[in-house]
Structure formats: structure tokens, C-alpha cells
Amino acid sequence: MVQVEEVPEETLFAGGREGETFESDSADDFDSDGESEFDDYIAEETVYDRIVALKDIVPPQTRSRLIVTYNKSRSWVQWGIGQAGNIAWIVSTSALLVGLPLALAIEDETRITQQEREMQMQSQGQQQLLGGAPAPQGQGVLPPGF
């Protein structure tokens, strides 16, 4: 069993041994070679090494719950991306199969209407050149649905 002993504050600041102080200039207290080796090890340590070191800190039950949660989340994200791809495929093919022919039909209808207007203007111009009575100002030729 461990025995706990209270240490008075005076002994902490007075030093452990006779004549020893906290600040010492002796070469034994500071080894620069050991310090640089530690710094080199820290510099060479990667993030992966640190994460692997955490394996011992996290209990196995918590790690297994984290893995299960990660796998479920990953599968839901994969499913969501797959469904989004399917929806994008359906929308794009529907737009091509329905929208493209509709746009072409509207363009063709507009072109035919424009040609009819040009023919009407041409016939009015010919009648005016021949000196006939001016053509009645009616609606003219209207395409169906207008």
C-alpha cells in the first residue's frame, strides 16, 4: 500500500540537499545531446504515429463503438451519393428525351410563324405596288393556339 506524506513548502524551495539550488550551472544537469535526440524524435514523429499511440488510451469498447459508427456513417454517405447520382441520371436523361424535342418543336413553330409573317408582308407590298386597295388590317394568319 502507498503511504502519502505531506511535504512542507519550506523544504520544496530550500532544496533537497545541503547547498543545492534550483538553478545550477553544472554540466551534469543539462545534457544537450540528450535534448537534441529527443527533439529529433519529436520532429520525426508523424500524425499517424501519434494516433496509433492513442490506441492504448482509448478503451476497446469505445474503439469498437467508434468503428461501428464510422462504418455506418460511411455506408450512409455512400448510399446518399449513389442515390444522388441516380437522381441526376434520371433528370438529365428525362431532360434530353422530353426537353430537347420540345425545344426543337417550339423553334420550328416560331420559324414557321415568322415565314408566314414575311409572306403576308410580301403580298401586302405587291398589292400596294399594283395600286390596288389597301389590304384590310386584320389579325392576319395566326398559328393554332394563339
Automatic annotation (TrEMBL):
Its membrane topology: Single-pass membrane protein
UniProt cross-references to InterPro entries, sorted A to Z: Tom22
Main localization category: mitochondrion
Subcellular location: Mitochondrion outer membrane
GO CC aspect terms: mitochondrial outer membrane
Composition skew (Acidic residues), residue ranges: 21-36
GO biological process: intracellular protein transport
Biased segments, Low complexity type: 120-140
Pfam families named in the record: Tom22
Keywords on record: Membrane, Mitochondrion, Mitochondrion outer membrane, Protein transport, Receptor, Translocation, Transmembrane, Transmembrane helix, Transport
Spans annotated as Disordered: 1-36, 119-146
Family: Belongs to the Tom22 family.
Name of the protein: Mitochondrial import receptor subunit tom22
Taxonomic source organism: Dioszegia hungarica
Classification of source organism: Eukaryota, Fungi, Dikarya, Basidiomycota, Agaricomycotina
